[in-house]
Amino acid sequence: MRVSRPDLVPDAGLSREEMEALQREIAAAAVFEDDFAFDPRALTTPDSDREDGAQTTLADSTAGSSSDSSDSTDAPTDADSPVVVGVDQSFLTNDDGDQDRALSAVVAMRDGEVIERAHAVTGLEIPYIPGLLSFREGKPILAALEELSVEPDLLLFDGSGRIHFRQAGIATHMGVVLDVPSVGVAKSLLCGTPAEETDDLPEGTRVPIESNSRVDAPDGTLLGYAVQTRQYDSPNRHINPLYVSPGHRVGPETAADIVLECAASYKLPEPVRLADNYADEAKRERQD
After folding, report:
1. What percent of the chain has pLDDT over 90?
2. C-alpha–C-alpha distance, residues 270 and 276, integer Å
3. In whole angstroms, what is the distance from residue 10 CA to residue 7 CA?
């Protein structure tokens, strides 16, 4: 993939103050509204030939075979259908048990089918610092995306977009650097305030997440949504929502629509869920 803004590529050698200043520059460059040509409703199409209604994945066709840094399939696809890529990571440790390398995994899907998978392993330069995740994981992600032969129409990240202290989470940072529409899908709320209670929400519900004093935005700015993709049919158990926010060139309402559209049978949207599975698979193969 081509880097559109090399001046904004995350640099782990910057001071914390410089990193935060760069994030503010990224937020200023980000477009938090729809700016793409594809139909979000076409991002995922269940495979009607499968009894369980699930989607066909590359893992189905390569079961029992070993994976390389890049896997692809020759399944017939509509060239006009959008390609959505899920991004996730796992981490490798050294002999002392410390995390010293990131394994970044990306899974490309079209019409609900996996068309390519790729991963890259790179060194970690800094520890995890809340709010500065992209400076730890951004370059590893760019390395994995470089392995893809297809061009993404949309990137879905396991992490925040505009729901971020400086409105520049990893989905925003990478989206702006690549100038590709992107969405952040986080499992916990980094900052901001839900407009309503988010406990035990019915499936399909979305609750606005608004900025507060912890965010570099006027109070009440819509940052994204708490999105309930799945829920138990039981009064004694409940599933927490996902925190969905625009990264770049996607508006908050559309970001929520996309995540609901891509959540096939699980809480996570399918591209992100499969990227998570692939990251674990590639990690196991390296450790064996």
Report:
1. 73
2. 10
3. 9
pLDDT band at 65 (very low <50, low <70, confident <90, very high): very low
For 193, residues 6+ apart whose C-beta sits below 8 A from its C-beta are 209, 210, 211, 212
List of E strands, 78-150: 83-93, 99-110, 113-123
The answer for residues whose C-beta is within 8 angstroms of residue 12's C-beta and 6 or more apart is: 125, 126, 135, 136, 139
Distance CA 16, CA 129 (A): 10
Q: Among positive and negative, which fits the CA dihedral 169, 175, 176, 178?
A: positive
Q: How far apart are CA 242 and CA 127, in angstroms?
A: 25
pLDDT band at 90 (very low <50, low <70, confident <90, very high): very high
Select from 59, 46, 264, 30 the least CA-distant residue to 164.
Answer: 30
Look-up of token digits 């006009």: 80
Summary count for the chain: helices (H), strands (E): 6, 10
